[in-house]
Amino acid sequence: MEVSTEQNKTSFIKNKQMFSQTPLMPVNPIFNPSGDDRTENRLIWFGNTTNLMQLNDVRYSWAISLYQQMRENFWIPQKLDITQDVNDYWNLTIEERYAYEGILSYLTFLDSVQTCNIPHIKSSVTAPEVSLCMAEQISQEGMHNQSYQYIIETIIPSDRRSAVYEFWRTDKVLADRCEFIAKLYQKYVDNPTPENYFVSLLADYLLEGLYFYNGFIYFYNLASRMLMPGSADIFKMINRDELSHVRLYQQLIPEAMKIFSHSIDLIYEMFATAVAYECRWTNHIVGNNILGITEASTEQYTKYLANIRLRAIGLKPLYPEKKYSKSPYSHLERFSDTKKEAHTKANFFEASVTSYVMSSGVSGWDEI
Ligand SMILES: [Fe+2]
Ligand SMILES: [Fe+2]
User: Could you tell me the pLDDT band of residue 96, with boundaries at 50, 70 and 90?
Assistant: First the structure.
């Protein structure tokens, strides 16, 4: 149920006052009997929740729709057939195999830190319907790690598996990347001020909205050349989950921008740094060595993604040139399956359909 403009205004003023009096982000008590869960008094942050999941009369109805969609996206990695990939692996070029393993290693890092960090962000969320989405997100990030384990244990030869999990120990570019991402989250954990909370939230959005996609593109690219179709099937499902997380942060960040002290310059600076790191890593692990991907297409795609993610939170594009207004990989969209009303076929080289999707109230997700 939406509240009136007047109520919104009152809540906003109250929010502002609470923010200015709050040196550190409050963490919700386990149970707060003196809390007030009335719809009109609910707030995403700085509210006074009992901490009961009272979901019958919510304020943020978008969260209920999103949660429903996230649940309907349910899937199990081990149910997807990746046997063809076991043979295909040996037909990859050395560069393709290097990229395949490096990207798996990087994505394992991303989902690991998400599983670890989202509970920190969630512990200060005072609207139970939003907290519910984050609980589902945490579960999905954990399951994504299980998918990587399934791929690594099935496809990668046993003597190479540890090297994939621990690539960050030996690869300086990956280690720098991991440390940069973790540092922004750690800053809030070490010093949980509202300013650092906002930065952590934005860092989450960058991870969800920018950091996965050159990796996804790599797998769709291989699949478009009839290579590693099982891996692409799994990444389609992860891609769909990640886009639901992007949607969550696209709702949260404009709300946070009304409440938390922040600078627009800082947001643009974070986006520019994120783009630079993403290009550096992708050029390092994929570069110009893979058919269908070049350093120029990586740059175009990453800047295009940054632009659409900024627009989605109400900000102007960082890269206004025309070429950054479209994806260089639109020909791979049919492999991503993100525009098909969240309905995904397993192994697109087969005629049979395996889907855990029961129904869909949302038409498509996003551009790849
Ligand atoms: Fe994930
Ligand atoms: Fe995610």
Answer: very high
Question: What one-character DSSP code corresponds to residue 56?
Answer: S
Q: Which residue range(s) make up the domain with 165?
A: 66-336
- Residues 280-303 pLDDT 10s: 999 999 999 999 999 999 999 999
pLDDT in tens, 19-28: 555 699 999 9
Residue 8: per-residue pLDDT: 47
Residue 345 has what pLDDT? 39
- Residues of the chain with pLDDT > 70: what percent? 85
Count other C-beta atoms under 10 Å from residue 364's C-beta. 14
pTM of the model as a whole? 0.88
Report the separation in Å between the CA atom of 289 and the middle of ligand 1, taken as the mean of its atom positions.
Answer: 27
Q: pLDDT higher for 270 or 21?
A: 270
Question: Is the confidence at residue 346, as pLDDT, over 80?
Answer: no
Q: Give the integer Cα–Cα distance in Å for 153 and 204.
A: 28
- Confirm whether 77 is domain-assigned: yes
pLDDT tier at 1, thresholds 50, 70, 90: very low
- Which residues are part of the catalytic machinery? 148
Identify whether 6 is part of a domain. Answer: no
CATH number for position 143: 1.10.620.20
Whether residue 367 lies inside any domain: the answer is no
CA of 33 to the centre of ligand 2 (A): 33
Selection from 174, 36, 25, 17 nearest residue 103 by Cα: 174
Does the residue 11 lie in any domain? no
What is the distance in A from the centroid of ligand 1 to the CA of 321? 31
Of all ligands present, the nearest one to the C-alpha of 140 is 1
Give the number of domains in the chain. Answer: 1
